[in-house]
Amino acid sequence: MIPFKTGVQVVGNDFCTRPAELASLRELIESVGRVYVVGERRIGKSSLVAEAIRPLHKMKSVFVDLMALKDLEDLTHRIGMAILASETQQNRVIRMMRNLSSLRPSMSIDSLTGAPSITLSPGTGNRLETLDELFALVGQWKRTVVVLDEFQDVLALDDSRRVLARLRNLVQTQPNVAFVFCGSIRNQMEDIFTHQESPFFNSAMRLQVGPLDRHLFRQYLQTRFESGGRKITEAQLDTILDACHENPGHVQRFCISLWQATSAGQRVKENDIMEAWRILFGMQRDAYELVLTTLSPQQTRVLRTLAHAGGTSGISSDFVAATGITLAPSVRKAMVALVARRLVQKDQTTFCISDPFLSAWLRQQPA
Ligand SMILES: Nc1ncnc2c1ncn2[C@@H]1O[C@H](COP(=O)(O)OP(=O)(O)OP(=O)(O)O)[C@@H](O)[C@H]1O
Ligand SMILES: [Mg+2]
Prior knowledge:
Layout lengths: L18 H12 L3 E5 L6 H9 L6 E6 L6 H14 L4 H10 L5 E5 L6 E5 L7 H12 L4 E6 L10 H13 L4 E7 L2 H9 L10 E4 L5 H14 L2 E2 L2 H10 L4 H14 L4 E2 L2 H24 L3 H12 L3 E2 L3 H7 L4 H13 L3 E4 L2 E4 L2 H9 L3
Parallel strand pairs: 1-6, 1-7, 2-5, 5-6, 8-9
Antiparallel strand pairs: 3-4, 10-12, 11-12
Helix pairs in contact: 1-2, 3-5, 5-6, 8-9, 10-11, 12-13, 12-14, 12-15
The protein binds adenosine-5'-triphosphate and magnesium ion.
């Protein structure tokens, strides 16, 4: 079995520890605090929060994913479903369904698996008062932690300010509930929590998630390769960590390819690492080509130039010249569009291609 995981939250043995972040997050949660967790995509925010909560048996946890939130109804339904999912005992779930009657929940049994599944009626929950009802229910529990993941996507709602103001009010009046807000779009998260005009101004502690400790992560990876009879050197792991910008999600993705390029009882060789790149590009090519078809010619040029600059750059005059686009504002506009598409991440004045494999693939392509 491949000992690497990607695209899922990792906890327990699969979680390479982050002692400092875990300790401070746990302390904040146990003291019924409010904290916002920021970090680039796939850096491990959701895993960190899940691992922090895991041993806190006395706390009930409600995990709400707000990625690509559409409207108020979508928000209340996601919170409602997360509340129901926080309970495993069926009689209690049924009681909760009664408490959530304004969302008209119904339970059905899957004819194939026999597992119960709950749905909420479309057209319900599109009033702000529904948020009050949901939080009143959570507030009755003894000790709870509510995690609102990809929280910045609330900003995409038409009436985001009103919704944020209501949420802020509800968050403020919950003495038994800890709140963790996670987000991968840093500037939007900072806007929510640090702008004076935002309802959430200064309302939560900040926790930044960066790369894993290199030494601990190397050990974690080495142990996994060894579990399948593969030997990999620290220098080779350093090369991989650098190529993946030390992003654990990307590193694990690369390690899956390297695992497939090797077999038990061997030492990893340079050729195997090249082969792992080929496997990765082979798997990703269709998706990457599809991405390019959706970009304007100027956006494509800017993305390619960024890739050739090593994946990270500011918009300097040299950069503008390298794009071959005459006007700097056009380059800026194309870059902003790439950021909006989440293909590129902005950090103050530098821009970075979110997926280092896309960046490496673009560098391989003929100009
Ligand atoms: N502590 C860790 N130990 C080992 N691998 C990790 C760790 N944290 C993250 N990963 C790797 O990164 C992947 C993404 O983790 P996670 O979903 O927690 O990140 P995220 O920052 O929440 O991502 P997103 O921005 O997509 O929500 C995991 O599937 C795993 O491969
Ligand atoms: Mg996440």
